[in-house]
Write a structure and sequence with these properties.
Number of strands: 6
Largest sheet: 6 strands, mixed
Order of helices and strands: HHHHHEEHEHEHHEHE
Distance between the termini: 48 Å
Structural class: alpha/beta
Helix content: 40-55%
Number of helices: 10
Length: 269
């Protein structure tokens, strides 16, 4: 049942849709032309913006590209995308109210020295490199790990050039064992990525995957949405460099993968 005073997306009349478009267009961000969007998609962006701004005025502070990412994550369903987006705004205010995660809040995670950033792929997507063997579950450390995930995502997103919205990940699993296994952390990271940073992942390369990891993968896999599944590549050891070179120039490839770029610690990027 709809609450009194809410805008019903399912029952919008033609005049209401016109009003919503006009309201969104007058907004300083809502009237911009979103590169790469069809006229139909642009109209949905305008309608969604008008709706979410009435529910949460802080929506006015985000650009249309963010609105579009949430729309695309829900197959352009305005109602579902709006619910997802409003949930994101509420989560952000609660999880990091200052708008950023400080290094002092994730000192233990940074101390494991497991995430690096450097270079970009051929489409301009910044690259994140993860060493899974350096992650060790810590009792009571899940919340700090989640903050670390957000810190990492904010860092890599800040490196995106204008016009780019996605990043790539190279996850090196060489040396991974059961002492590194942390299903709660994996699912926590997956939830944050899919629910709060939709349409940000461009490609995810798994390198040197040990057979024993597949037992954990079977647990995690059902929670991965269909769009994300298409972006995951398990790279054969014998074809590692050639596979990566299809997407990344050698000059931008990490040294550990046979490229020329040294790794840069996450906090220094």
């Amino acid at each position: 049942m709809e609450q009194r005073g809410e805008v019903s997306l399912k029952r919008k009349t033609e005049s209401e849709e016109t009003t919503a478009k006009e309201e969104a267009t007058t907004n300083k961000r809502g009237g911009e032309c979103v590169h790469g969007s069809s006229s139909a998609e642009q109209n949905k962006i305008l309608l969604m913006r008008a709706f979410v701004e009435k529910q949460d005025p802080s929506s006015k502070d985000v650009d249309d590209y963010m609105i579009r990412r949430f729309l695309r994550a829900r197959d352009l369903d305005i109602e579902k995308a709006s619910a997802m987006f409003l949930k994101y705004l509420k989560w952000k205010r609660t999880f990091f109210p200052t708008g950023c995660i400080s290094t002092s809040e994730i000192a233990n995670e940074l101390g494991q020295n497991k995430v690096f950033t450097q270079g970009s792929d051929k489409t301009g997507r910044p690259i994140m490199v993860i060493f899974s063997r350096r992650h060790f579950p810590r009792k009571g450390g899940l919340e700090e790990f989640k903050r670390f995930v957000v810190f990492s995502l904010e860092k890599v997103c800040s490196r995106m050039p204008e016009g780019q919205e996605k990043f790539a990940v190279i996850c090196d699993m060489e040396g991974w064992g059961y002492t590194n296994s942390d299903v709660r952390a994996y699912l926590g990271a997956l939830t944050i990525l899919q629910d709060y940073y939709p349409e940000r992942l461009g490609k995810f390369f798994f390198l040197h995957v040990p057979y024993i990891f597949m037992a954990v993968w079977k647990v995690v896999y059902p929670f991965i949405d269909d769009n994300s599944k298409k972006k995951i590549v398990f790279v054969e050891n014998k074809k590692m460099k050639s596979t990566l070179l299809e997407d990344i120039d050698e000059s931008q490839l990490p040294e550990i993968c046979g490229g020329k770029l040294p790794l840069v610690p996450l906090q220094d990027s």
